[in-house]
Design brief:
It is built from five helices and no strands. By secondary structure, the chain is mainly α. It has a domain of about 130 residues.
Length: about 230
């Protein structure tokens, strides 16, 4: 056992000599030799050129903004046209009402003159009835013109956004569910308080009941058309 761990100079390796030449030429030649396929040099360069996703989003947003501007301009032009048409309709119907009023006044004067002539025996029943028919037609035309004029005014208020203000309708009353301000709508009889749809309202004072429209007054008996006296042959 002792002999195995003892140093034997006879079996020692040769000593290192500093004069021995060491060459790495073959290794360097293999690095630059084109016959070695497992060697190579690479270069990787990354340059951000364009962010196409952001550019597409921006272009789409600009197009949508321009479309919204065009729609807004179209709505403004449409409102201007509606207001101008409503103003023209109001002026036209106002002139029609004035013309119908003049026709009614002329019809009344013509009927009165014809009745006087008939009382003096210078006219006939047919002419008097014709004047009455003309007057009735003029009054009917006046009512139609007045209705068209009121509709034109309502349309003008709607186009200008003043319909609720001119009608006395308060949005606050609708929000609270209680009417504190009575609307002012022409030619519309206000509904009694407490009356609901389908429920008969309470009987009111006869003085508060709406009166029936007045009947047209008949001319005095002297002006009533009478049959002409028989002529002596």
């Amino acid at each position: 056992m002792y002999s195995q761990f003892c140093f034997d100079p006879a079996n020692a390796p040769p000593a290192f000599r500093s004069g021995t030449a060491v060459s790495y030429g073959s290794t360097l030649n293999q690095l630059i030799d084109s016959t070695a396929p497992d060697k190579g040099v690479g270069l990787s360069l990354t340059i951000p050129l364009r962010n196409r996703t952001s550019q597409a989003t921006q272009i789409r947003s600009e197009i949508e903004y321009r479309q919204a501007q065009m729609r807004l301009q179209q709505i403004e032009n449409q409102v201007r046209i509606e207001v101008r048409n409503a103003q023209f309709a109001v002026q036209q119907n106002r002139a029609a009402v004035e013309s119908a009023q003049a026709a009614v006044e002329l019809g009344k004067q013509s009927l009165a003159a014809e009745q006087k002539k008939y009382a003096l025996g210078a006219s006939t029943t047919t002419l008097v009835l014709q004047n009455r028919t003309t007057l009735a037609q003029a009054e009917s035309t006046l009512l139609s013109a007045m209705a068209a004029y009121e509709k034109a005014q309502v349309e003008l208020d709607r186009a200008t956004g003043l319909l609720l203000d001119h009608s006395g309708i308060m949005i606050s009353d609708a929000e609270h569910g209680q009417v504190n301000h009575m609307p002012n709508i022409p030619y519309v009889q206000p509904r009694p308080q407490g009356a609901a749809y389908g429920v008969e309202p309470a009987v009111q004072n006869p003085q508060q009941q709406p009166q029936p429209p007045e009947q047209p007054q008949q001319p005095p008996p002297s002006e009533q058309p009478q049959a002409p006296p028989p002529q002596n042959r």
